Amino acid sequence: MDKRDVVIVGAGHGGAQAAIALRQLGFAGSVAVVGNEPELPYERPPLSKEYFAGDKTFDRILIRPAAFWAERNVDMLLSTAVTAVDATAKRLSFANGGSLDYGALVWATGGTPRKLTCSGHDLKGVHAVRTRADVLKMMLELPIVTQVVVIGGGYIGLEAAAVLKKFGKKIVLLEALDRVLARVAGAELSRFYEAEHRAQGVDLRTSVQVECIEEKNGRVTGVRLADGEIVPAEMVIVGIGIIPAVEPLIAAGAKGGNGVAVDEYCRTSLPDVYAIGDCAAHANGFADGATIRLESVQNAHDQATIAAKAITGSLEPYKATPWFWSTQNDLKLQTVGLSIDFDRTVVRGDPATRSFSVVYLKNGRVIALDCVNAMKDYVQGKKLVEARAEVDPELLADVAKPLRELIAA
Amino acid sequence: MSELVVIDRSGSARTIEGETGRSLMEAIRDNGFDELLALCGGCCSCATCHVYVERGPAEARVTGSNDEDDLLESSGHRRADSRLSCQLFLTEALGELIVRIAPED
User: Fold this and answer.
1) Nearest CA in chain B to A297
2) Partners of residue A242 on adjacent β-strands
3) What is the pTM for the complete model shown?
4) Full strand arrangement of the beta sheet holding A235-238
5) Is the dihedral of CA A19, A23, A25, A28 positive or negative?
6) ipTM value for the complex
7) Set of chain B residues whose Cβ sits within 8 Å of the Cβ of A325
8) Which of A19, A73, B12, B26 shows a CA-CA span of 20 to 30 A to A63?
9) Which chain A residues are Cβ-neighbours of B30 within 8 angstroms?
């Protein structure tokens, strides 16, 4: 029976970093990365930004060049989907009929895009933005497309809309809630981005419910709304979140539900099985210890390092500061901390200048910042978040006062 | 193509070739160095591709934008010749650079 000392399932940011970290830590055993896509590990954020826009070719978003994995003696088993985990025999079964035994298993599968449940959700012309293949399919269709409906006003939907606008497409963006970015940011940021996209010519609508996708000869022709209106479109992009890809692990007996549950060392409830990244439900200190999943490069990368350390015998708890970025048009948003359950916001600077920050407070302490074209605030605000600093909101709002001066204030 | 000498954190130096028009970060990453995280992929959103440009023309040794300068401020290892390597684009005119990967923050 074929076996590797460490098998990493998932060839995204987390999976790649787990392999890199194992070798950096001097791990000499055999390592395999199992990925269900045909590609070597690549960066996903550019899929809705530079890669989609054609500003970067695919080779430039590879996390490492092909030769690197061979040099580090990391086997890449690509186009291989894991269908079952036997946690007793420590064996993986593949969709292609193969199997592989593991000494330790790192589950880094991320998630699959949540699909609409209405009729027409799987028509030709309906797209998700999660993989290179998704983007290539869109690129092929784009020349014949004049109007696109983007369903979902999260980061993926907004970033995709920004790129498509650059291509000169007409865009209608539909958000079910009463503001965009509702799940991840405060209303001030939502309103700013709504106004920005509208100013670019995006027909951005909130509190809109989708009834179904309309079709002709199996191809998308539009989106029917709950009020009966049909918004014409030759392409529909659905960005309504992901479902963590943990089914085989849960079926094998791992604790979890929305993701797989891990402890502070990224260990699941199964022996020698770790989980990292988007699919790992963990207690996060920046969320007051609440169990959350974090969908970010930062989290995938830092949890990968934690898991690699645990596998090589040095237990170090996961405490990394969350950070995130989003690029839309000429706006660079940078987030530090987690704004979950904030009870107050302070706007620092004037959004009309297109450079400002939103500071999130909970019980008078700084828990997060969203910084738009405001690098200094991002860099200095990180210290406030890490210290959970108690700062007078009036001082936070005073742009004349650098945030670094407020640390001990 | 331009020639670069890259010194890693253990102090060992290696000469590599960088493609004109690509960033210094890409040249380092694509030549097998794994110490440079470059987590944001080169869009000047983190500070995990920090290097010191120990030899090279003045324009390679000073930061290219306020954003780069502010991000470098977050490093505890900043020096006068600190750069985010994703913000330094290789040209023939830069000549031979000697760069050292900065310690991890």
Assistant:
1) B39
2) A113
3) 0.97
4) A126-127, A235-238, A147-151, A170-174, A203-205
5) positive
6) 0.94
7) 40, 43, 45-46
8) B12
9) 64-65
